[in-house]
Amino acid sequence: MASFLKSLFTNCACPQGRMGRLMLKFMNLCHAPLTNWGLNIAGIQDGWTMLDIGCGGGATLQRLLKRSKGACVYGIDISEESVAKAKKVNAKVLDKQVFVCQGSAEKLPYEDGEFNLVTAVETVYFWPDLPDCLQEVKRVLKPRGKFVIMVEVVDRNSMWTNVVEGMTAYQPIQLQQMLIEAGFTQTEIHLKKPSYATVIGIKK
Ligand SMILES: C[S@@+](CC[C@H](N)C(=O)[O-])C[C@H]1O[C@@H](n2cnc3c(N)ncnc32)[C@H](O)[C@@H]1O
């Protein structure tokens, strides 16, 4: 049982195979409360071009699309399994309004200044060099574009960081500090019980 759970949860970092597919289904449902709350704070406007990094099973792409008439939404994920699931979930609008590709937050395959909004839901824990990735996020944002980070694991010694390999938890204040150091302005922290955090930074 313990090894089954460990193997299941290790698929949070990079979903693969049958367990990965199971985890993606689970995350599409279970991350809804955090994501809906965070996106409602983000002040999304019609016609925006938006990117979700670490898009997993693609539910956030749907949630973004629902909040912005005439939007274009991009998703990127390091896992082939996540990309396949995100494409399936968004099949009706795929390659029309929703575009999904495989890749990493470290090197985003987009032009400078493409996006009004970049989101990252439950994924920054796994990004290899967060300060470098923040520079990459800033590069692809338009001037005044927003980066919205949503996390629910904010304690370095949580059960999750012990169970999920390669996971680093950041306190909201640490994420805010990193955003400031990366050159973002008007940073904000929003908190909600049980341990939801949305941390926002704006590109100058
Ligand atoms: C816990 S899941 C969250 C998925 C989705 N955002 C959600 O809320 O359901 C983390 C996702 O981040 C992806 N990921 C991990 N490291 C990444 C990186 N360096 N660049 C892009 N995606 C990454 C994983 O493959 C996985 O799909």
Task: Describe the overall structure.
With 204 residues, this protein is of the alpha/beta class. It has one domain (2-203): Rossmann fold. Helices cover 38% and strands 25% of the residues. Helix 5 (80-89) links the parallel strand 2 and strand 3 (98-102). The longest helix is centred in the first third of the chain and has 14 residues, at 17-30. It is globular. The mean pLDDT is 95. The structure holds S-adenosylmethionine. S-adenosylmethionine (SAM) binds next to helix 2 and strand 2. The site of S-adenosylmethionine (SAM) has 25 residues, from helix 2 and strand 2.
- Largest sheet, strands/sense/barrel: 7 strands, mixed
Between the first and last Cα atoms, what is the distance in angstroms?
49 Å
Number of helices: 8
H-E order: HHHEHEHEEHEHHEE
Q: Give the % helix.
A: 25-40%
Unique bound compounds? S-adenosylmethionine
Q: Assign the CATH superfamily.
A: Vaccinia Virus protein VP39
What's the total number of strands? 7
Q: What is the percentage of strand-forming residues?
A: 25-35%
Q: Radius of gyration in whole Å, from Cα?
A: 16 Å
Spatial ordering of strands, largest sheet: 3-2-1-4-5-7-6
Structural class: alpha/beta
Q: List low-pLDDT spans.
A: none
Mean pLDDT: 95
Number of domains: 1
Just give the CATH class: Alpha Beta
